[in-house]
Amino acid sequence: MLAIARREGFEPCAITFRYGQRHAIEVEAARRVAESMNVTEHLQVEFDLRSMGGSALTSSIDVPKGRSTEQMQEGIPVTYVPARNTIFLSFALGYAETINANHIFVGVNALDYTGYPDCRPEYIRAFEAMARLATKSAMEGDQPLTLHTPLIELTKSDIIQLGLELGVDYSLTCSCYDPDASGKACGNCDACTLRLKGFRANGIPDPLQYQNSTTTP
Hints:
two-stranded parallel sheet, mainly alpha, globular
């Protein structure tokens, strides 16, 4: 998503959230990616959603492992964090207003999204409509805020292929919901399953380190 924003001529500022997630290794991955893309500014926002729980990512609920892609489409999984994207986008909206930006990019996906309600196109449209009413800049400015979702209708395979075309270094990234203490991906959660599926579809190995060396193609 960041590489796409660069290609389209934007000068990105990045925002990352440390919200008490069990896979906080993604925060370090975000730092590496932001540095590799030479973002203008990288803001890290910290708050703790563990006080509310309600998700396998913010509580002691087990992360599902070994599910098929068909099983992932059955209902909303326990890895859904209540209202997370609404919280994230609200912070991003406030940040955008303070830096006089009227474009927000978010990497939601509606194909391999495994049932998350806040990754759907209708949700994005609704948030964008709200954002155009909610801020001082929206009332006084002449350019309404635009919410960009360049990955929303791409398969995981398409996303990986596009990233490779744009020079994305996937060894810097991490997708796992349940990495070990050293940061190695489990290879069996929904996020790992979809990621590995995407790399296999492109006929190339995933450069990410996995706990089981036989996981990668």
